[in-house]
Amino acid sequence: MKNDPGEEHILVVRRSKAGLGLFTKEPIKRGAFVIEYTGKVLTRAEADEKGGKYLFDVNSRRVVDGTERINRARYINHSCRPNCEAEIKGGRILISAKRAILAGEELFYNYGKEYFNEFIKPYGCRCEKCAEKR
Q: Could you tell me which PROSITE patterns the record lists for this protein (predicted)?
């Protein structure tokens, strides 16, 4: 089982309902490490000045700028019913499986209320849970 934060699953970027998404090519067990969200570490002031959609708060002082395409975790889309979750450990942003994920499934985590209100709500959420409501 790949549960070491240095050992990622086989993941591919491809088209999804929300544009591009990250999909697993192999089953992932519940609780297993999936991928790390990486990028340049910015101060809060630098992040506020830069702005953008790929800024991930580590704490009140540090933000990871995941803009670079080498950061494949940036392709994990938002869902109100996610199959993954992000956890911050030692300043690292680790994505793990909330439930067992089947090969071929797209990966999702909940981006949080602040991000949702600023970037998703104005255009409407495209996750499966919200699509069911329409």
A: SET
